[in-house]
Specification:
GO terms for molecular function: hydrolase activity. The chain is α/β, with parallel strands linked by helices. It is built from eleven helices and eight strands.
Length: about 260
């Protein structure tokens, strides 16, 4: 009888401990502290400087990926290397084409959540070209070279890519733009990480490079928490505080899961 009582008491204590653990508010969970930033076409990692500085000031460990843009697969591998170099889980953030990259790379077990910034959010089997063709942007500035790369017409860069940046800054970005391989734009993702990971989407309402309504459609389809910014395609540069705030909110929410 005494042995039975001891067993009952032990079970009661165990259930009490489980109940106490379950009662801990979600808000007490630690946020994800790693943030990996992925740039898009016609830009490079330096565009994340303002966002990265804010995140670092607020205690986040920030990594900026300088992917080669030779193919979607190469860019996913570069991003996955950055994720796997971190201690613990990461929030993946992608701008524009970077959304394609994080949608595939985000399937890694060390990715806690995804943040899309004026970005493409493909489903499995979709390429950037598929999505852009489904709802054409306002700009006519994206052109191809004879050897299979893309570039943004410098004459249209300020108005259509970075209208909310000073003209001098937009001019330098146009002169120093990264020219991606066409095959990076035509390759499809095989698995959409937003189906299994929480996601957030910043929609740039004055975007002339990725149609704002396409951004809204993709965010709604993915079930992303959507935030709208009155900004150009380069909103991640022009509005770093707004973008960093969303990333930090994502880190807290993803850390509670």
């Amino acid at each position: 009888m005494r042995k039975l009582n001891r067993i009952v008491s032990a079970l009661a204590l165990s259930f009490a401990a489980m109940a106490a653990q379950a009662a801990i508010p979600v808000a007490t969970q630690a946020p994800v502290k790693n943030v990996v930033l992925v740039h898009g076409f016609f830009a490079d990692g330096s565009g994340w400087r303002g966002v990265a500085d804010i995140l670092a000031r607020d205690g986040f460990n920030v990594t900026v990926v300088q992917q080669p843009e030779t193919s979607l697969d190469d860019d996913v591998k570069a991003t996955t290397r950055a994720v796997n170099a971190q201690e613990g889980r990461s929030i993946l953030v992608g701008h524009s084409y970077g959304g394609m990259v994080i949608t595939q790379a985000g399937n890694d077990r060390k990715v806690a959540g995804l943040v899309y910034v004026a970005a493409f959010q493909p489903d499995a089997g979709e390429s950037l070209k598929d999505l852009a063709d489904s709802m054409a942007p306002a700009t006519k500035g994206i052109k191809a070279t004879a050897d299979g790369h893309l570039y943004f017409d410098p004459a249209l860069f300020h108005a259509d890519f970075a209208a909310d940046l000073p003209a001098a800054d937009a001019r330098f970005m146009a002169l120093s733009q990264v020219m991606p391989a066409v095959q990076a734009a035509t390759a499809a993702v095989s698995q959409a990480a937003w189906k299994s990971k929480p996601s957030w989407a910043i929609v740039s309402t004055a975007d002339r490079t990725v149609h704002p309504d396409l951004q809204r459609f993709m965010a709604k389809r993915a079930g992303s928490t959507a935030i709208e910014i009155d900004g150009s395609h380069a909103a991640f540069i022009a509005h770093p505080a707004r973008v960093a705030k969303v990333i930090e909110e994502a880190a807290v929410a993803a850390g509670a899961r």
